[in-house]
Protein: Phosphoribosylglycinamide formyltransferase
Organism: Tanticharoenia sakaeratensis NBRC 103193
Amino acid sequence: MTRRHPIAILISGRGSNMRALIEACRSPDFPARIALVISNQADALGLDLAREAGLPVLAIPHRPFGRDREAHERAIDAALREAGVETVCLAGYMRVLTPFLVDAWAGKMLNIHPSLLPHFPGMHTHEAALAAGVAEHGCTVHLVTAGVDAGPILAQASVPVHPSDTPEGLAARVLEQEHALYPETLARFLRGELPVADHDSNVEAERNTTEKARE
């Protein structure tokens, strides 16, 4: 019998990649079940989608916490642990995490990013890819570490960039790949099929780089 690991999905908007994970989890042999969906936006459309799928949902808006990002993340962490979550999937979660949540879920938090990392981290990746004139673009599933979009890469999928591409058209083709890549990679990750570089070493290296940049 397939062990179904309890996962949580963190979203901020419509939950497009969350939908793909929901569909994958409907299969009895998929090694995950969704124990909780959390959004930092109470009006996120993805919460309605999750409710319609019969999933436990929770809105933990960040604004009441003001500038205290860690306090907001402590509320999220408490909810994750109360739900018995073992792995966290970021799916369009539009908040830069503090070391608190990164460390609390070290090696157990995944993210999907719309570029072929390490190229084009951060926002506006499709515009950046077109401006750079690259021949290929795509998406990456990676572990979350202290650096923005800098954690160990678990899997990638690519699409060709056409001369006629617009950011919107390129984004749509990449999104199709995201919807296939995220569930597949999550399943392989939970089954222990993916070799992952030492997480603690990566975190320490990123922090050392950050500290040197501040000096």
